[in-house]
């Protein structure tokens, strides 16, 4: 039985806390529901990785979608932050609402800044669990495959081995 993976538990907990703090500002719909839905789904993959400590598939899925959420967070913050800033900061709403908006924005940015670092840690966990980059088999489009795989082509004849065996070479007299 392997020891518990504290790094993965810390990653999931930290991103969960930052996600909850980032989405607490709901006055002007600072971040759309897709932000927290996608991040919660990705965190559930992290929980799956914690529940299955020997599975590198869970970590691989968590890593791939974690990297996707980096791009998604950049896009969503870039689209929704200026609109919310205009309605909260410029239109002169109460100071408490401004503070709540600024805190949520800070936590969303902090979450985004930590994601590349945690993606690197997830890659290390993936490798520690036995995953390798050579496990990725990308399909080839056009041309012939570089290797045949486990299946034989039954349309082609089986190559014959014309090399003498060592025992038959010893039995023959030498000229």
What layout of secondary structure does this protein have?
Blueprint: H1 6-22, H2 33-51, H3 56-90, H4 95-128, H5 166-171
Give the SSE string. HHHHH
Mean pLDDT over all positions: 79
Output the number of helix runs: 5
Query: Percent range for helical residues?
Result: 55-70%
Content of β-strand: under 5%
Number of strands: 0
Please give a structural write-up.
The protein is an all-alpha fold and 175 residues long. It is 63% helix and 0% strand. Helix 2 runs antiparallel to helix 3 and helix 3 runs antiparallel to helix 4. The longest helix has 35 residues. The protein is elongated, with a radius of gyration of 27 Å. The model has no long low-confidence stretch (mean pLDDT 79).
Which key terms come to mind for this protein?
175 residues; 5 helices
